[in-house]
Amino acid sequence: MASAQGKTVIVTGAAGGLGKAIATAFLAAGANVVVCDVNPERLASVDAEWSQSHADKFLTQQTDVTDEAAVQKLVDSAVSKFGRLDVLINNAGIMDDFSPTGACSKEKWDRVLDINLNGPFLTTKAAIAQFEKQDPVGGVIINIGSVASIHGFKSGAAYTVSKAALMALTKNTAGFYGDKGIYCIGLMLGGMQTNITDAFSQGMHMEMFAKIQASQSPFAPEKQVPIESVAKYCLFLTDKDIAPSANGSCNLFNKNWPEA
């Protein structure tokens, strides 16, 4: 596995699921890891798990990524403890309920866009400010996107738009900041077993879901992307020799589902 020795990494939504797998991979590779999440119970579990063996190498902080002041506090806390910031992984996100435009409530639309798009915007903005003022200048941002970033008929309207917009944010950020040594990369993931599907517990728009299922080959457990593989790929993309070349790329990592 690649080394991240001495780097400081913030992973959002990292107290469980994919985010925790990413944080764990960076911790194992020698990084200082800042785990942020809105769920205090999950954060307490991470604290209990890591405090004995990694006490000086990690920080947990309850953070709502849609709150600009809270995001700034997160970055400030990371720098205060570890001296600088090198990597931001924008992983925090929620799924919608597969509602098409005409059935999507304004409340659902606002919540999904707030967390999946406004959150990464705010964390990226705060991280860039830190990247620009530290010595040496620079850093890497990885945005966790989805096959829905590219394919317009893989989820509900709100989730699709949020992830497509996140891909645009990735490319725009990469275009302006790349020559400053600040790189932004997108990772467009396929189906995984993560806690993002908690939203389905409240039901989903079954007509939309059925139409999406009928438009593609059926999803099966063997087509799930292992979250540990995603974590390894994130680590690889932050390598100093890889990040500049990957800047602006939005890489499909989906076990070829839906098929290319």
TrEMBL record:
<dbReference type="InterPro" id="IPR020904">
    <property type="entry name" value="Sc_DH/Rdtase_CS"/>
</dbReference>
<dbReference type="Pfam" id="PF00106">
    <property type="entry name" value="adh_short"/>
</dbReference>
<dbReference type="GO" id="GO:0006633">
    <property type="term" value="P:fatty acid biosynthetic process"/>
</dbReference>
<dbReference type="InterPro" id="IPR057326">
    <property type="entry name" value="KR_dom"/>
</dbReference>
<dbReference type="InterPro" id="IPR036291">
    <property type="entry name" value="NAD(P)-bd_dom_sf"/>
</dbReference>
<protein>
    <recommendedName>
        <fullName>Ketoreductase domain-containing protein</fullName>
    </recommendedName>
</protein>
<feature type="domain" description="Ketoreductase">
    <location>
        <begin position="7"/>
        <end position="191"/>
    </location>
</feature>
<comment type="similarity">
    <text>Belongs to the short-chain dehydrogenases/reductases (SDR) family.</text>
</comment>
<dbReference type="GO" id="GO:0048038">
    <property type="term" value="F:quinone binding"/>
</dbReference>
<keyword id="KW-0521">NADP</keyword>
<dbReference type="InterPro" id="IPR002347">
    <property type="entry name" value="SDR_fam"/>
</dbReference>
<dbReference type="GO" id="GO:0016616">
    <property type="term" value="F:oxidoreductase activity, acting on the CH-OH group of donors, NAD or NADP as acceptor"/>
</dbReference>
<keyword id="KW-0560">Oxidoreductase</keyword>
